[in-house]
Amino acid sequence: MQNIIFEDMVKVMERGQITIPLKLREIFNLQKGFRLWIRVDQNRKIELEPVKEDKAKKLSEWLKKMMKDKKQYFTDFDEKKLRQIREKSRNKLLRLYGKNPR
């Protein structure tokens, strides 16, 4: 027999939602949008497990870090070449759709 450290009853709502008791949300720091793994074993026992780290959260943190990064990765020459490539691509698309490029 497993050692149960918390037990409570929840009600299943109209669309299948349940409310996780506040004490558990606090213990596991579950906030809006947090993801949980849900598993059912052969004995029809339901198990919930917090997802350790969401990939979207990792990406968001990385993007925030990059936004604060002041290092220059591209030179002015790179920017000029990029503008030229974009202009060529734009002109090709305009020709493709029968519009005159400027």
TrEMBL record:
InterPro entries: SpoVT-AbrB_dom, SpoVT-AbrB_sf. This is SpoVT-AbrB domain-containing protein. Gene3D superfamilies: 2.10.260.10. GO terms for molecular function: DNA binding. The lineage of its organism: Bacteria, Candidatus Roizmaniibacteriota. SUPFAM superfamilies: AbrB/MazE/MraZ-like. It comes from the Bacteria. It comes from Candidatus Roizmanbacteria bacterium CG23_combo_of_CG06-09_8_20_14_all_35_49. Residues 10-56 form the SpoVT-AbrB domain.
